[in-house]
What does this fold into?
Amino acid sequence: MNLPLVTAFIAIFFTQLIKYPISFLFNKKGAEIDIVTSTGGMPSSHSAAVTSLITALIFEYGFSSPHVAIATIFGVIVMFDSMGVRRQSGEQGIVLDILAKKHLQELNQQVNQYNSTSEESYKENPVLNQYDIEDYEHMIIKKYLGHKPTEVIGGIMTGGIVAFVCRMIFN
It folds into this structure.
């Protein structure tokens, strides 16, 4: 059995599953179940996966192994990326969401004015008909893309714990 690979996958699934109860306990607004299948949130499943992989490789090959070196470098890149580029993308997604909703509300106001002043109905105008705020909710921008440093640290700790538990179970 490839224990490092199995451990990394277990870390991903476990981390995704515990996001809901953690969000439920610490989020003032409550928790949404879709956090289990989305990216972002506490703890970082990306960080948990690479940390558990690195830890399992250390157990299997020793700290001085080239496998550990490769996994560590890629792990650092993944964690840095989740806090940097992906986090900024998520923040930009929130801004785009706000702007899009505002724009659609303005368009709906124009449509209502158009409908009240014109004999042509709203449904007969395909250009105006394509901008509907109810349809927007189906193409919602992902808001949880990246991680805060605390979420990455939580993922590191979770990944390490998962690797230790998997080692005890499978060895």
Q: What stands out?
A: The CA atoms of residues 54 and 72 lie 6 Å apart. The chain has a mean pLDDT of 79.
